[in-house]
Amino acid sequence: MNSRSLVRVIASREFLARVRSRVFVITTALTVIGIAGYIVLQAYVFNKSTASLDVGFVGTAQSIAAPVRAEAAALGETINVHPYASVAAGKADVQSKVLDALVSGPPTATTVTVNETLDATLRTALNDSVRETVLNDMLTQHGIDPATVDNAIASASVHVVELSPVDAARLQQIVIGLLVALTLYVTMVIYGQLVAAGVIEEKSNRIVEILLATVRPWQLMMGKIVGIGLVALVQVLITAAVAMVVASVTKLVSIPTLGVDVVISGVVWFVLGYLMYALLFAGAGSMVSRQEDVGSVTMPVTLVLVAAWILALTIALPDPESAGTTVLSFIPFFSPVIMPIRIAAHVVPFWEVAISVVLVAGTIFAFAVIAGRIYRNSVLRIGGRVKLGDALGLPKTERGDPTNATM
């Protein structure tokens, strides 16, 4: 079998073994349930107006029921209107908490009966309605048509001049880019550690010795990286699909029409970013033999990812067009997180994207050579942590060892 076929076989084995595992099923299910539950809570609990009042109107006060309900609705509160024939019957229902409030008296001097306190929104709506009624009466007494005045007031508005108007569509696209960056960051932290842990597992239980009898070290490393990467991609796609469906059904948000460039760039940067960082995690993982050491050996790589995410939040997201964002998007370590935000905001020309892709691809090639060398020199060493110089296969004289300088 050629190298491509061997990598494909190893990747398939890695992918199928992990997808069929209980860990994958449970984590995927919990993630999906968590995302769906959060969206449902946002749609039906946190974003739902819980203010719904039952208000009774007696006699002439019934004439202001419609405007009071309309104004309360504009303020985000629902008022259920209940007409009553007598004040006594209304007060009895207020005392028994069938009604939240009872409005009685003439429209220009209404009385509100409540058990404890009057709802602030209802108070505002009633005060505005009473004042409007008084104003109309005064205008009529002075021979002025209230309808003419109401129309003049309704047509009067403040003219706003926006020096830096917010483009809602662009803001939505930036958010999409940020979600792509967030997906990459979270995936790298979780599955990068999984790559390192998988390498250590095979190394500690000596399975790697059997595998390396038939395949080359770099083939085994690449097969593991590709297989775990496919697992990550499947989990992300499942979670994203469920989130979009639930958000659409609950009408929490309207799913925007994604541009082809945003979708393609998201996939491309996911693949490039995963390959670049997974190579580093695999190389680092091969240098130790215990699962307890995976955190310490991969910490430098994780810190770079954290730095990329912080820069995306503090520099790229507030201003995708700034010089700082542009420079950061060309640095291979940060490109997979920064560039999707610029692409989604449509502020980056194609040639800049192409250059960034080439730089990241070159970095991946360099990391593949370096990580392959580290993996080859370290994966069969059991015991303590392998020093970086030994993992790279550097002669001791190149590492400044005076004991070998004269040998």
Structure commentary:
With 407 residues, the protein is mainly alpha-helical. It folds into two domains: 3-38 and 168-399, no CATH class; 52-148, Periplasmic binding protein-like II (D-Maltodextrin-Binding Protein, domain 2, 3-Layer(aba) Sandwich), CATH 3.40.190.10. Helices cover 67% and strands 5% of the residues. The chain has 16 helices and four strands. Strands 2-1-3-4 form a four-stranded mixed sheet, sandwiched between helices. Strand 1, helix 3 and strand 2 form a beta-alpha-beta unit. Helix 12 (323-330) packs across helix 13. The longest helix has 37 residues, at 168-204. It is elongated. The two termini are 44 Å apart. The model is unreliable at 402-407 (pLDDT under 50).
What is the structure about, briefly put?
The protein is mainly alpha-helical and 407 residues long. Helices cover 67% and strands 5% of the residues. The protein has 16 helices and 4 strands.
